[in-house]
Amino acid sequence: MYWPFRSLVIGHLITGSVGLLLFWVAVGTRKGGPTHTRWGTVFIWSMFITGAFAVTMSTLTLVDPYATHPHFREMPQWQDEQLVRALFGWMMQYLGVLTISLAWHGVGAVRNKKHHEGNRNARNIALQVAVMLLAVNVAVRGYLVHQPTMMGISVVGLASGATNLFFAFRQAPPRFSYLYEHAKALVGAAISAYTAFLAFGLVRLYPEHAFNPILWATPCTIGLGIIIYHQVRIARMRNKVEVARAAKVAVSAPALAYPVEV
């Protein structure tokens, strides 16, 4: 099982690295422009593939933790098989599905902007429900192995699944709300991927920092800052559109009420 697992790790690193680099291209380019659309699409697909690799790797770890991570046999802090399963099995599986669900929801919000009911497709709903169930599972597993970090990060999945479902089943979402969802979900997918890369990558170099709360919180903090920044920009754009519409109505209404005789 070791070499198939190693092949998955290599694929995971390649697609994840490409996606996490292109994330900054999508963030830094003009929204809706050709560069943003082109490289944003590559980023989304890299998140799908990276998440699929993570889910497969986590499943193999759940089957046999030490066959997939033989180096842990030499580390005293990783002698607990349930701890290895909790972090590299259940936690990685949760983050993999979270990444896929956020990428799917983010691209769907834009594609379905004119047909909002399209966000209620079976695949999107199933992904959000799966994330919430896995989040609860991670919280329970974290409690059993005495890891508050796992319990804390489960809140992200619960909030993500709940808010995404709320948007999907909303009958009449406000104007431009699909842009809020697009930004929130795709930045969230990057947060999930960066968290996994930092936590699972650093554990090989510094195993004692595997559950360092600062390490787990850093991508989330930066990502939330990006989300808030873009939500403020979207809100300003929405206000400008509403003001422009109101001004147009204010000018045209009197002309209709009091036509000028020529």
What would a concise description of this structure say?
By secondary structure, the chain is mainly alpha-helical. Helices cover 80% and strands 0% of the residues.
Tell me about this structure.
By secondary structure, the protein is mainly alpha-helical. It has one domain (2-246). The chain contains 8 helices and no strands. The protein is elongated.
Label this structure with key terms.
elongated; 0% strand; 262 residues; mainly alpha
Give the class from helix and strand content and strand pairing.
Answer: mainly alpha
User: How far is it from the N-terminal to the C-terminal residue, by CA?
Assistant: 87 Å
Give start-end ranges of low-pLDDT stretches. Answer: 251-262
Largest sheet: none
Element string (H = helix, E = strand): HHHHHHHH
**How many domains, as an integer?**
1
In percent, how helical is the residue content? over 70%
Please, what is the average pLDDT?
85
Percent range for β-strand residues: under 5%
Dominant shape: elongated
From the alpha carbons, calculate the radius of gyration and give it in angstroms.
Answer: 22 Å
How many H/I helices? 8
Q: What is the tally of beta strands?
A: 0
